[in-house]
Design a protein that fits this description.
Blueprint lengths: L1 H8 L4 H4 L9 E16 L10 E14 L2 E10 L7 E7 H11 L8 H14 L4 E8 L3 E9 L4 E11 L2 H36 L1 H11 L2
Parallel strand pairs: 1-5
Antiparallel strand pairs: 1-2, 2-3, 3-4, 4-7, 5-6, 6-7
Helix pairs in contact: 5-6
């Protein structure tokens, strides 16, 4: 009986999450967190829209290969509120040198994921001082800037050139998200039924209260 109760408490969605098409080919997720972004819009003439918004965006940092032998790094942006929103930044050994020179980085390719993760964690834990800004352009491109607020100015720590997912990437992303939500919903409903059965057996009066509370 105790084993059954322990099984009812935990819900493991790993088998569903592993179906993510972004993980195909051997990608591993190192960082996965929702963060508030300041979102700016720029038109074809590079005129900035005054209507900036704050949006909660999911940031995932993934590597291809093992931590000691990384062949590719991907920074992914997505939104739970807009399944068609999907941008990514991918770097491999060949084009990292360009990124390193442009960003004036002092790290090698193997340490680039750590720099990315550390930067976004600072945005997560020190929101008064560090903030991610996403500029969206009309040519399906974007740019993420990590800004540090100093006493008299804002300092850009690092930036990432982003590309919007094409139609096929968006189709796979939306299909997976929809299927994932549906599958998790079915599992949760099954857990609720199991909990009700357990409560019914141990405390029928409490079951009536629960049914009214959750309108089940």
């Amino acid at each position: 009986m105790q084993q059954r109760e322990e099984q009812l408490i935990g819900m493991d969605f790993t088998h569903i999450d592993n179906l993510d098409p972004c993980l195909e080919g051997g990608y591993h997720i190192l960082y996965n967190q929702e963060l508030p972004f300041l979102v700016r819009f720029v038109d074809d003439q590079e005129h900035q829209d005054d209507k900036n918004t704050v949006e909660v965006i999911r940031v995932r940092i993934m590597i291809l290969g093992s931590p000691k032998d990384i062949t590719q790094i991907t920074l992914e942006l997505s939104s739970e509120n807009d399944l068609f929103f999907y941008y990514f930044h991918t770097v491999d050994r060949e084009n990292f040198q360009n990124v390193k020179n442009q960003q004036q980085l002092s790290v090698e390719f193997q340490n680039y994921p750590d720099v990315c993760i550390k930067t976004f964690k600072r945005c997560q834990n020190e929101q008064q001082q560090f903030a991610p800004v996403l500029t969206l352009m009309s040519n399906s491109r974007g740019k993420v800037q990590i800004l540090q607020t100093l006493e008299y100015k804002e300092l850009e720590l690092i930036s990432f050139d982003m590309i919007a997912g094409d139609d096929e990437i968006i189709r796979q992303h939306v299909t997976f998200k929809y299927g994932s939500i549906k599958s998790k919903h079915q599992i949760i409903n099954g857990k609720i039924k199991d909990v009700f059965e357990l409560v019914k057996m141990k405390n029928p009066q409490l079951l009536l209260h629960l049914q009214k509370f959750v309108n089940y």
